[in-house]
Design brief:
CATH architecture of the largest domain: Roll
Order of helices and strands: HEHHEEEEHEE
Strand order of the largest sheet: 5-4-3-7-6
CATH class of the largest domain: Alpha Beta
Largest sheet: 5 strands, mixed
CATH superfamily of the largest domain: Transcription elongation factor, GreA/GreB, C-terminal domain
Structural class: alpha/beta
CATH topology of the largest domain: Chitinase A, domain 3
Strand content: 15-25%
Shape: elongated
Radius of gyration: 21 Å
């Protein structure tokens, strides 16, 4: 079980607890990490506030108006509105429980020359796979805030796991459906919370 979100952990301790293991309710399914950056926590809290304070009251009003029109069994606006309310309530429950379970990692690691949670890592594919010498940069974050299009990579992803504890000029190999890819770490940086 994850610790409460007010509990602070050193990033080095985080590494010891990130291995995936089957959850009790989903046998064989890996459990996602319970860590998040301060920015990620703010994003989830903002979504929860929006759903509860803005979206839900808006949908509730439209459902009330649709119900006032009469027969609810054939009233598409009423049926759709009720469905939207169920979806909002489900997401609100999830966010509420998830935010309680998450641990916000505020502290920077002591050794900022190694890759830990929250690091921005610059990678370059090996020359035979990358003749142009292109680089990519990812930030290692919790699964709730990962979005590859924004350059954030879940700490549970195979590439992220292989990057942990690495330093500049280290190589990492990741098995993908296309085969084994080799990356070289060309930069590591952290930004204060």
């Amino acid at each position: 079980m994850c610790a409460a979100s007010d509990r602070r952990l050193q990033r080095e301790n985080f590494i010891k607890t990130t291995t995936s293991s089957p959850g009790p309710s989903a046998p064989g399914r890996p459990r996602s990490s319970c860590y998040i950056t301060p920015e990620g926590e703010r994003t989830l809290q903002a979504e929860l506030r929006y759903l509860w304070k803005v979206k839900r009251p808006e949908i509730t009003r439209s459902v009330s108006e649709a119900a006032a029109q009469g027969d609810r069994s054939e009233n598409a606006e009423y049926i759709y509105g009720k469905k939207q309310l169920r979806e909002i309530d489900r997401r609100v429950r999830f966010l509420d429980k998830r935010l309680e379970a998450l641990t916000v990692v505020h502290d920077l690691p002591r050794d900022q020359h190694k890759v830990f949670f929250g690091a921005w890592v610059t990678l370059q594919k090996e020359p035979e796979d990358n003749p142009e010498g292109e680089t990519v940069e990812y930030r290692l974050v919790g699964p709730d805030e990962a979005d590859i299009s924004r350059g954030t990579l879940s700490i549970d992803a195979p590439l992220a796991r292989s990057l942990l504890h690495r330093e500049v000029d280290d190589e990492v190999r990741v098995t993908t459906p296309e085969g084994i890819l080799t990356w070289r770490v060309t930069g590591i940086r952290y930004q204060p919370a």
